[in-house]
Amino acid sequence: MADGTTDGALPELPNIVGITAGFFKGTAFARFILRWEDVIFSLMVIGLILLLVRLGSRRLAHVPGRLQSFLELFVGGFDEFVRGILGPQARKFTPFLGTLFLYILAMNLIGMIPFMKSATSSWSMTMALALCVFVYVQYTAIRGMGIVGYIDHLAGKPRGVMAIIFVFPVFMLFMHIITELIKPFSLSLRLRSNIWGDEMLVSVLAGYGLPAVPVLFFNMFLLLIAAVVQALVFCLLATVYFALVLEHDE
Q1: pTM (2 decimals)?
Q2: Whole-angstrom Cα distance, residue 129 to residue 205?
Q3: I need a surface site. Which of 56, 60, 120, 200 has the fewest CB within 10 A?
Q4: Dihedral of CA 47/49/51/54: which sign?
């Protein structure tokens, strides 16, 4: 989960982990926090989310306050969003997908705060998230269809003449297996590349000093939109992956 070695050669804005490591330069502590820099920032995000949820649900009331209303609006809205794709089965996936969205969104946004960093700019972090989706999707498919049923699903459910023509089902099975294995890479690289590119752009603009301040402020507005969009795209694709392996009565 350490940060990628290729990222270190490119200019980055200073963050609290790097600054702290500078005070302890050459020590094992400095090497440790630099190695686990992305994990440290992701743990900060987890702490902030837990604090937010704790404050919002500490005193539940029939007439909710602002924070409780916001959390209820988010949960209800996201549940409707997932249900619109997965149908009645959505309720059991909403907690996972909602947590994933909130976690990614928070990690994207925290990089906009001075001396902080988006952990999603690291491929190791986004790949871990994509693998969580991949494993859960495969588990859902096997649990719902069984191993034989899932293989039949990947083979295109050949029946009649198609089942007799052995080459076609094998080709479909091979293509679907390759497609499933590619999904974590495409899912993780899409998120990582966009967030990493945004951070590099901010870093480059900051290097121009005061003349670049107007452009920098406008770019921060675009980054805010991009942070929301990228989190939503990640979760939308994850939801579609679930939809592809769920049995539908219709």
Answers
A1: 0.84
A2: 30
A3: 60
A4: negative
